[in-house]
Amino acid sequence: MPHLPDHLVAGYRNFMNGRYLTESGRYRDLAREGQAPETMIVACCDSRSAPEAIFDAGPGELFVLRNVGNLVPPYEPDGEFHSTSAALEFAVQSLKVKNIVVMGHGRCGGIRAALDTTSAPLSPGDFIGKWMSLIAPAAETVASSTLMTATERQTALERISIRYSIANLRTFPCVSILEGKGRLSLHGAWFDISTGELWVMNKETGDFERPVLE
């Protein structure tokens, strides 16, 4: 029984003979000096929407947090376990990132689960259902719309959830204080897996627009 799947070993071999070979100096500097990324990305776990690939980022450039549905919960210092909040706290307070980007994507399974209230939980714990209940009010409103197709409802909630997460980010004192001082900027983005298009949220209107690529 191999210790790792063969395709992972093969991928690591390619990494060592390719990217690491050309960026070994950068990796050594990061190991010695530590990381200092300017941007945190809150993205979905979905294997098709990796931020490092989409933004062509090198080692040490992005601090990436991935969870189901790219959600940020509200600030709740209740003594429970909060992995997303812990990563956010570390990025803002220790790494002192300058930007936080919440990036959703098309065809998100978590968003689909939030819209579909008829399916049985995947396990008795229903961890996904509980997690996606963070956007339950929006999901109920969107799901009840008969004027949109299923695909339109999915895309609508994917984008609305990004605005929800940004609003929840502002419930964290460390975020709201720094944003107020102009030392931290919050952004929203949505990635279309099928076309590769990236849509960026307009901070004033909340609409999603295509960035101009020169």
UniProtKB/TrEMBL annotation:
Keywords: Lyase, Metal-binding, Zinc. PROSITE patterns: PROK_CO2_ANHYDRASE_2. It comes from the Bacteria. SUPFAM superfamilies: beta-carbonic anhydrase, cab (SSF53056). It is an enzyme of class 4 (lyase). GO terms for molecular function: carbonate dehydratase activity; zinc ion binding. Zn(2+) binds at C44, D46, H105, C108. Binds 1 zinc ion per subunit. Its cofactor is Zn(2+). Its EC number is 4.2.1.1. It catalyses: hydrogencarbonate + H(+) = CO2 + H2O. InterPro entries: Beta_CA_cladeB, Carbonic_anhydrase, Carbonic_anhydrase_CS, Carbonic_anhydrase_sf. The keyword Metal-binding applies. Gene3D superfamilies: Carbonic anhydrase (3.40.1050.10). Belongs to the beta-class carbonic anhydrase family. Reversible hydration of carbon dioxide. This is Carbonic anhydrase. The lineage of its organism: Bacteria, Pseudomonadati, Pseudomonadota, Alphaproteobacteria, Hyphomicrobiales.
